[in-house]
Amino acid sequence: MAYWLFKTEPGEYSLDDLSIEPKGFAVWDGIRNYQARNLLRDKVMVGDEVLIYHSACKHVGIAGLAHVVKAAYADPAQFDSKSPYFHAKSTVDNIVWYCVDVSYKSHFKHYLSLAQIKSIPELQNMALLKQARLSIQPVSQEEWQLIKRYGS
DNA sequence: GCCAACGTTGGC
DNA sequence: GCCAACGTTGGC
Q1: CA of A105: how far to CAs of A24, A66, A75, A86, in Å?
Q2: Strand B: protein residues, Cβ closer than 7 A
Q3: What's the CA A34/C1' B2 distance, rounded, in angstroms?
Q4: Nucleic strand C under 7 Å from the C-beta of A130
Q5: Of A90, A92, A104, A91, the residue nearest A32 (C-alpha)
Q6: Residue A85: what pLDDT?
Q7: Contact (Cβ atoms closer than 8 angstroms) between residue A10 and residue A64
């Protein structure tokens, strides 16, 4: 089992929104970065654990936990000409973008701010700090356990 | 709202 | 295949 960090802009979609999903899960779609796509398509598996990170907002940081309930499949938005995520070159025979389904697990008791993450020596190698623009990132087991301890 | 970082596009 | 121009992300 692997650990991940998924970014979302809470103004668009937050952990709160995930926690009240009527269907019990969310389609994590709209990923339009090749490196993130490759991770989604090839590495993210059912049962993997996910840190939900809130970006581009007032209080940036890790809000809580989710887990993967469905592995990669074709992101429906790429075929939807009305969607901002429409991709004209995508066909059913040539799937370009992928999504996964995630379910809510919990809110952290202690929201872990980016400033805090930056202050923890063991977390300095996180992709979050090194590769600012990657919206699907691997998290090591050590990082995961430490973050969970800070958040709980 | 600004701006740095950086991924993508497209001309050559 | 290089690289300039451009667009987007995302922290502050």
Answers
A1: 10, 5, 23, 30
A2: A 33-35, 131-134
A3: 28
A4: no
A5: A90
A6: 86
A7: no
